[in-house]
Amino acid sequence: MLTRRPASARTVALAVAVAAGILAATKETDPTDGRAAWRFEEIADGVFFAAGTGAMTTMSNSMVIVNDDHAMLVDTSVSPAAARKLVAEIRAEATELARLEMALRVREAHWNAIQETKVRPPNVTYRDRMRVVKGGREVQLHFVGRGHTSGDTMVFLPAERIVFTGDFFVGRPGANGLPYMGDGFVNEWPASLDGLKALDFDIIVPGHGTPFRERKQIDDLQGYPRDLWRQASELRAAGHPVEEAVNRVDLSAHARAYGERARRVDPRAVVCIYELLQIRHPL
């Protein structure tokens, strides 16, 4: 159940902070024929980790924050259908909700989620940090630098010492994860991770994987893109075409953290690096 402990009847508004395109959920045919598409795990009082069950494509994790007079939904998945299903399941789980309001804004990162809707600009923006105190809880938004996208936002709960990273960081307890680097900023990612380290958290809720506590995983991820950028830059400077560079990059030094994934670099990441270098240093 998506309820706080202990819970009393309250009016709750749902602020969808990181997506758009949720329309008329109750009028749409259930794409899973009644099966649950999401599972909810309470990781702190009123803070829920939401992950897909496999009943439909959801791709990324979400987080639901239930406060005294409203709730926040952080990251609504990869498609309008998955977002609508998530909202419908929150409605079904949170039986204490008397009213559900939606505040929508667009984020660059999950563009697929707004393909079916009329695009509207956000009505609230921030540059580096924004502090929101509502319903008895403080929520901070931090832009720590570019990595997975040019606008990655860390959602930080200082009292609960929880940070939600989206696809900027992925992983699970005891198992490192490698985020997709095919359209990111590989050269800037390590420094941006320093910004994540600066937050005073105990639990990371990643965009993919499950919540975990090992800060060492941040150190590991910093080393991987640094090495990848260095090698790809040197190969390009030496005149190797990108197809050849993919086969020459050797990241086996990171096998302890990433296993076989470190031995097979994602070709899209190398292509992305070559494109960024072409902008900076045209050949």
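The above is record 1. Record 2 follows with the same two-line structure.
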Amino acid sequence: MRFSRQSLSEMPVIGYLLRVGYSVLKLPAMWADLHRDVNNLHRTVLELKDTPGAIGKFNGMLTSGAVAEHSARLTDHAAQLQEQTHELEELTERIASLEEAWRSAAKAEQSEMEELRAQIRKQSGQIAMLMEENRARENAPERREPAAAVHAAAPIYLGGGRVLVQTEFGNPLICKSQDIQLTPALIYQRVWDPELTRFYQSHLKPGMTYLEIGANIGYFTVLAASLVGHHGHVHAFEPLAEAFTLLELNCRLNNYSYLCELTPKAVGEFDGIHTLHTFEHNFGSSTLSTLPEKLLAEFNEKPTAEPVSCTTLDSHYAGREITFDFIKMDAEGAEPLIFAGSSAFLERCTTPETIYAIEYNPQAILGLKRDPGDFIGHLLALGFQVGKRQLSGVLQPIRDPSELDEWCNCELVLSRNAGVLAGCR
């Protein structure tokens, strides 16, 4: 059986392999035919040699063309063998080429697989890191920031010296436009005392009862109400009449009046009437203390005296069944007076786990003829653990009054439970 010549490059590999395989299978039969023809020729020659008239017979065979036929067959077989040998050589070369291509493809695939594995390892590491960060956030103290904070409204001047702003936690507040402390901060940053705000968001929980002394217009009062929720309670004291009016407005504006108990009084050591020194532009710095001239020069403003009603925590909460979880005092130096009038309150209305956030104002304390160091010593003697809140949020333990600056204000965090204080940030 003969095949027409066809270029190997044009022949499908499988078909080509089948053709060559068929030719290889035919080789034994072709060799057998060739061997048989040679044997027949040899026998014929021997017979002619021993037979009379052999020469004439041999000439007759030559004339008849028998030898020519055998010769043609031999030539044909030889040509087929040569052709198939050539095809086998081409097949060997192509197989070698295919093997090389396969090795190159395998090498490229191996390289791609290694690169893919590297990418998977990298992404697995990133996923593990994100999962760890997510677990850390889940275990961290809860911070609730309403979606409304994302879309802050522009400040609006309402007239009458009042401006409406929106805090970063989404609550609107009416502020005094002439104030140069709280109002500018809320207009430009929408947050007042960011570190203390974060502290509130970390430690005030739904259902807690909160007390604030020196509430001003209610920035922290409203924040606390949003955090303790409708199962919680908020109590706030503010002696300055104008500030108390804004405090009430802001609680109503945010629909928190139902859970807020607001009292228009100062808190101190005795019940009665006291003199409050007020400021038009440093609105939140109103104080019962007589401030030093150096500090007044920093304010660039002289105070105005205003009589206000004062109560004590002992008398105000006498006979009431209430326990506070979080107490904030920002009374511009009156903190020693507050603690002096709250021995029964501390016994009945607080627990060792109660957290206190207190502004320490040594110059204002001196203006009330009290010693700042004695005040800190008194707190330590009452069993309070005292920590100074750093800007980073870390609490620096205070074990001696000398560790605090005698001029600069700072924020103190107190608790009679060392474990609670250790967890405060």
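The mean pLDDT is 83.
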